Amino acid sequence: MIIDLGEVDLARLSRIKILDETAWYHVCARVAGWLDWYPLDDPAAREELQKLIKKYLEVFCCEAAAFCLMGNHYHLVLCFQPFKILSREELYKKAKILYKNPEIVLLSDRHWERFNHRIFDLSEFMRSLQAEYARWYNKNHHRRGALWSERFKSVLLGNGESVLDAVLYVELNPVRAGLVERPEDWRWSSASHRFLAKDQWLLPLSEFCPSAAKAKVKSTYHHLLYYRGGVQVKHYDGVIPEIILESEASRGFAHPGVFSSRLKFFSNGLVLGSEIQIREWISKFRKKFYYRRRKRPVVHRIGNASIYSLRGQRYQQTDSILGEGSICFGNT
To answer: CA of 187: how far to CAs of 67, 123, 222, 234, 283, in Å?
Structure first.
């Protein structure tokens, strides 16, 4: 079922959510306040946010492929499972993580059903995570008011290359910001956790990082991360394998460091994927009269590489003001 919002301009649409099949998202949220305010620089603040992310990954039917906690914002790459009806026993275990006494909250069949739908919803995940974190931060720093600025940004990722691209882009944030020379040196990111083999709570690399052999998945990921960030390979890692260089060149990433600059479409593109995938989304919108002017995917050139999105960058100035809508695809 599609929730009909009438004639929708893509500039006013903040996100697309898929409910009836596996869905990948890159999400980003930023704090409110002065531009030079970095509340997440406090290690205790980052520790709490990371702890809550882990908590809500247990409650919600999703997994994290990547995360990165910066000074005034954070990034997540999430994979949500398709909606299904869970047993009362499964729901109770998840509710027990949220509530001391779930029986007081889950009073009727309607409450159980609502909770079942809630834990498959990206917006509910972010609302719950950010609300609890804001309460913790305000209490521990003796402040009042909203902690987060505009609604979180969300980009739907097509399965395959766009997921891996988003993971690498997210994990290279500290390198782009000049905070570290290597992505794994940033303690508050999935790159650090993977290099230190502390990534058991994260989605396995094999789920989004293709490799000829499972034994080479981790080294392939390491080399891709270095290559995209223009990071020099450590002497004990050897040189970047020729097969990876050929694969990158075939996609148009013929030069290292292609993700060393900020690429706004990773946060504002609405949907990222192959040209065929984006054309399919445009067709869906046009058939339902959501957006009739868009006819072709927006193409972003990075050297000789092309990444396609549903929304162009001319919308980004109005996104924080007008981005109040969302469309769900799937059964509700």
So the answer is: 11, 27, 16, 18, 42
How are beta strands 73-80 and 62-69 bridged, if at all?
antiparallel
What does the pLDDT profile of the chain (332 residues) look like in tens digits? 333 333 345 555 668 888 889 999 999 999 997 878 888 999 999 999 999 999 999 999 999 999 999 999 999 999 999 999 999 999 999 999 999 999 999 999 999 999 999 999 999 999 999 999 999 999 999 898 888 987 899 999 987 899 999 999 999 999 999 999 999 999 999 999 999 999 999 999 999 987 656 778 999 999 999 999 999 888 777 788 898 999 999 999 999 999 999 999 999 989 999 999 999 888 887 776 666 666 789 999 998 899 999 887 654 333 322 233 566 666 44
In CATH, what number is assigned to the domain containing residue 169?
3.30.70.1290
How far is the C-alpha of 291 from the C-alpha of 110, rounded, in Å? 35
Count of residues in the chain:
332
Residue type, 21: E
Based on the structure, what is the number of domains in the chain?
Answer: 1
Q: 79 lies in a domain?
A: yes
Domain that holds residue 283: 10-84+120-329
